[in-house]
Automatic annotation (TrEMBL):
It is found in: Cytoplasm. HEAT repeats lie at residues 215-252, 254-292. Residues 816-826 have a biased composition (Low complexity). Residues 694-731 form a coiled coil. PROSITE patterns: HEAT_REPEAT. GO terms for molecular function: protein phosphatase regulator activity. Serine/threonine-protein phosphatase 4 (PP4) occurs in different assemblies of the catalytic and one or more regulatory subunits. Component of the PP4 complex PPP4C-PPP4R4. InterPro entries: ARM-like (IPR011989), ARM-type_fold (IPR016024), HEAT_type_2 (IPR021133), PPP4R4 (IPR039918). One of its GO terms (cellular component) is cytosol. Putative regulatory subunit of serine/threonine-protein phosphatase 4. Residues 827-850 have a biased composition (Polar residues). This is Serine/threonine-protein phosphatase 4 regulatory subunit 4. Keywords: Coiled coil, Cytoplasm, Phosphoprotein, Repeat.
């Protein structure tokens, strides 16, 4: 039987079409290739493009500008800043005149390149400003009125930058005097537009009387030009002119011109006048604002909906600045009127749903919808300013409904802008920030990741404001806000994880490290900590894995239950350090770096030192290579003589690597690491001058771990004694627990203020007390601290320190970046809080011996 052709059966039709499609693609490629071959340079063309290699840079530049092609000349012009740095004298003498000749007939590309090169030479200050004005300024002025608008604007930007650096006399003779003729009606439109922009720059260069005599007549003439483009351009420059001449001349000269331009027949001119008025509000006195500016603004607002929607977008953008600038002259009725106008703009287009089915108005409706979206976006941008306008105390009554609408707006740009300004809103509301908690949850659950990304930028600050202000209003509001916040946070992370925007996911995980200061340790353990471990094990993006690893270490740092800590540590070692995938073992080493950064040295040595060394036998060279790079940091966690056995283990592993390593790359890194390890000095248990700051910081970390561990023990004691304790026992227990909290807070406050300072004052005795170094023991500290353990609970509760569980977690732990973890029994660097309060002679003797 013969095999049927591919197109014989109906089922083979797709294969047939794909085969012929492939052939057609090949034919298209051959067609495309033919012109490429034809466009190759002939030997004659290559010969003309060839330049003698023995020529110097200056000679080559002159040759290419004289007889080279356009692309070669453009290359020389682009290289002008380099030539000016290497040999400025010869460049000015030989190259620059050639560039001046070429620019007369040069194309657009060379003109744009020359404008950029001239500006670069100015910015790099390759020559003095006198030499620059003598050599380059005339070329800039000659090409300023190029027929191409893009080229003209490029040279204009260069000239405006040059004007700032030029001396006044040069500007006056070379620029201002010729400007009188360039601004006349007989000149071209392009020339008059250029003159307008130069006027705005020159006005800030001279004294007010010179501007009044020589510049203001030209300004008035250009404000009354017959072309609306010139009037609009000059109107936008009036702000710079006003800043240059001062308030008196602004009131008598500039303000009347703005009033006249605000009634111009051209909409672009009216828009320019309105924006300039808003920007100059700070230069007008109360009378000008109330008698001149306010009527104009009211007229703009009325016309924006009726006859002139062209200024609606600009009006909504400047409304916040306008309302606060005119705040002092508003009557209550006008205040309410502008507030209602803002509310109307904030919902513009949401109620108008008709017209979409009308085919004739479909295009018009689309343009109108874009305009309305821009208006609502600008209202979202101005929302913080409007809170200031109505006073934050009146937010719930006056603006909360608008805030709700903007956060639930159907368009992403509006919600994105609200997410960006959410932190500013939260700061302004202060103690009333709890009123916008629902909107925070809404934005966290937004379907657009752009909105989530904008909100996450200030998420730690927002959550801190909400929890802290919630405490001011009672703990109930804070606790009630947690249940809907946690699901929103977990939902946001899952949506970011399932998207392709890994940078948003990474940013989110980094910001979630703030949660130990916001919610309880148990909530973090059950809702977030295991999720971080899952991300490390399953995610394929390295930055996301590292962000999750660091956040997991932060959660572990603040975890307050020893059983949970041990469980997480065992999982890290088993699933990462001893995982089957080499990728997981690499992430284990990354996690160990974060452990060394966040925890005390004793904690790392107790739990992670030996598991890290076990990776010296890893079968994958990349793991051994990364481990070798990490070994110097690992060695820095050791203290002699306490960790002498660990040091021996480290040296044994190094010897095995030197003797048994077969991979050349790993062996090279091992040898380099050995040299670095040999140069390292190991700290000892006692303080040393060269390690004083690091040792003190590590001591504070370890002290905090112990004190928080004591808190856990106190909580367990309280749970055991709850059923059978008397009222007196409860008071004694509460007194002891509050004292431990206070000691922990003082410890963290000390570490956050003293340890970070560069110029630490060395204490007379390197004691381990929690208090200031100037006190050698607890007996010498102020009576206020010494008698704290004797105070009744009612007195302790009046101290400026929150001693409840949540308040300690939020405030005391927040500054120091530490938590409770057990330390090795061999490191007795400090005593418990009760032992310190006793101040016995044995502890004092131990301190003095150190």
């Amino acid at each position: 039987a013969t095999v049927p052709p591919p197109g014989a059966g109906g089922e083979a039709a797709p294969g047939h079409s794909s085969l012929f499609g492939y052939i057609e693609d090949l034919q298209e490629l051959t067609i495309i290739e033919r012109p490429v071959r034809r466009s190759l340079k002939t030997p004659e063309e290559i010969e003309r493009l060839t330049v003698d290699e023995e020529l110097s840079d200056i000679e080559r530049a002159v040759y290419l500008l004289s007889s080279g092609q356009d692309i070669q000349g453009t290359s020389v012009v682009a290289n002008l800043p380099v030539l000016m740095r290497q040999n400025p004298a010869e460049t000015l003498r030989r190259v620059l005149p050639k560039i001046r000749e070429v620019l007369h007939v040069a194309g657009v590309e060379m003109q744009l390149t020359a404008a950029v090169s001239f500006l670069t030479v100015l910015q790099e200050e390759s020559v003095s400003i006198h030499t620059y004005s003598h050599s380059f300024l005339h070329i800039i002025l000659q090409n300023l009125e190029h027929r191409d608008a893009g080229v003209s604007n490029a040279w204009l930007e260069t000239l405006l930058a040059v004007i700032e650096a030029l001396p006044k006399e040069t500007v006056r003779h070379e620029i201002l005097n010729p400007l009188v003729s360039k601004a006349q009606l007989s000149q071209t439109l392009q020339s008059r537009l250029v003159s307008c922009k130069i006027m705005g720059k020159v006005a800030n260069k001279f004294e007010a009387h010179i501007v009044k005599r020589e510049v203001l007549p030209l300004v008035k003439s250009l404000c009354q030009d017959v072309e609306y483009e010139v009037r609009a351009c000059m109107c936008r420059q009036l702000e710079h002119v006003a800043r240059g001449i001062g308030t008196e001349l602004t009131k008598t000269v500039v303000l009347p011109e703005l009033v006249e331009l605000a009634r111009d027949e051209g909409s672009s001119v009216r828009l320019a006048a309105f924006e300039t008025l808003v920007n100059l509000l700070d230069m007008f006195d109360a009378d000008d604002r109330s008698q001149t500016v306010l009527p104009l603004v009211k007229s703009f607002c009325e016309k924006s909906f009726k006859t002139d929607e062209s200024i609606l977008v600009s009006l909504s953008f400047h409304l916040g600045k306008l309302c606060n600038g005119l705040y002092g002259i508003f009557t209550p009725e006008q205040h309410l009127r502008f507030l209602e106008f803002y509310k109307k703009l904030s919902t513009l287009g949401l109620q108008q749903e008709n017209g979409h089915n009308d085919n004739q108005l479909h295009l018009q409706t689309l343009e109108q919808e874009k305009k309305y979206i821009s208006v609502r976006k600008n209202c979202a941008y101005n929302f913080p300013a409007m809170i200031v306008f109505v006073d934050p105390k009146n937010f719930h009554l006056e603006l909360y409904s608008i805030f709700f609408c903007l956060c639930h707006d159907p368009e992403v740009p509006v919600r994105y802008t609200m997410a960006i300004s959410f932190f500013e809103v939260a700061k302004l509301l202060n103690s009333d920030v709890y009123t916008i908690h629902k909107e925070l949850v809404t934005l966290l659950q937004d379907e657009s990741l752009e909105v989530l990304d904008a909100l996450v930028g200030h998420l730690p600050e927002i959550l801190e404001l909400m929890t802290n202000r919630g405490e001011n209003n009672g703990s109930e509001s804070k606790l009630l806000s947690i249940p809907d916040l946690i699901p929103a946070l977990t939902t946001a992370e899952q949506r970011a994880a399932t998207s392709l925007k890994w940078r948003t996911h990474e940013k989110l995980l980094q910001k979630y490290a703030c949660l130990p200061h916001i919610i309880s340790s148990d909530q973090i353990y059950y809702r977030f900590l295991h999720r971080m471990l899952t991300i490390i094990l399953t995610n394929n993006v390295l930055p996301v894995q590292k962000a999750a690893a660091r956040t997991l270490c932060v959660y572990l740092r603040y975890n307050r239950k020893q059983e949970q800590r041990h469980e997480v540590i065992q999982k890290l070692i088993a699933q990462l350090g001893q995982g089957k995938s080499y990728w997981n073992r690499l992430r284990f080493l990354d996690t160990c770096e974060f452990i060394m950064e966040l925890f005390s040295k004793s904690f790392f040595c107790k739990y992670f030192f030996l598991p890290v060394l076990e990776l010296t036998h890893d079968p994958v060279a990349n793991v051994r290579m990364k481990l070798c790079c990490l070994l110097p940091k690992v060695k820095s966690t050791l203290k002699i003589p306490t960790d002498k056995h660990l040091l021996q283990q480290l040296e044994l592993c190094i010897r095995k690597l030197l003797c048994q390593e077969k991979d050349k790359d790993v062996l090279t890194i091992v040898k380099r690491t050995v040299l670095e390890l040999d140069r390292m000095e190991i700290s000892v248990d006692a303080f040393q001058k060269r390690f004083y700051e690091n040792d003190l910081l590590d001591q504070e970390k370890e002290r905090q771990e112990h004190l928080l561990l004591e808190m856990e023990q106190l909580e367990k004691e309280k749970q055991k004694n709850e059923g059978r304790s008397t009222n007196i026992n409860d008071k004694m227990f509460e007194k002891k627990r509050k004292f431990v909290y206070l000691c922990t807070f003082l410890c963290m406050l000390y570490s956050s203020t003293k340890v970070v300072e560069k110029g630490l004052v060395r204490s007379q005795s390197f004691s381990t007390q929690v208090l200031h170094p100037k006190y050698s023991n607890i007996d010498k500290c102020p009576k206020y601290l010494y008698n704290l353990h004797c105070l009744p609970p009612s007195s302790l509760s009046k101290l400026p320190l929150c001693v409840s569980d949540d308040s300690f977690r939020t405030h005391a732990v927040g500054n120091s970046g530490s938590a409770a973890f057990p330390s090795s029994s061999s490191r007795n660097l400090f005593n418990s809080a009760d032992q310190k309060s006793n101040g016995n002679k044995e502890s004092q003797t131990r301190r003095m011996s150190m």
